[in-house]
Amino acid sequence: xxxxxxxxxxxxxxxxxxxxxxxxxxxxxxxxxxxxxxxxxxxxxxxxxxxxxxxxxxxxxxxxxxxxxxxxxxxxxxxxxxxxxxxxxxxxxxxxxxxxxxxxxxxxxxxxxxxxxxxxxxxxxxxxxxxxxxxxxxxxxxxxxxxxxxxxxxxxxxxxxxxx
Length: 164
What we know:
mainly alpha
């Protein structure tokens, strides 16, 4: 039941990423810098359309690679997954919730990355220091979600050893 909240979070984060990418794309110059030196001059960059298509490709690739295991568990596609995460098992719900919410965290991180590229290229509008707090949130979220995964797996292994 809880995995539906994870699905909603995943869909909302996907929509937010698309909105953020389109917003930043409209404000970017023809040459998009993604690294600048101390003087504020671009060191590394790419064409605006290459940046857009690269960001979309990365988004689609990460979402597909990370959602496929959830869909395999949800649809019980293989006998091993059917036996490991049977329908009605609380750990099946926990695992699906974790996967969908983790993909949502990945999408939120991609949004922050798009905002950072926007701030590098439009330093008159927004400074990179004005949202530095979000850069610290990304690794914290990753650590919390990875610890959550290990907790779920440890609880599942204990359940399997107990014969439940």
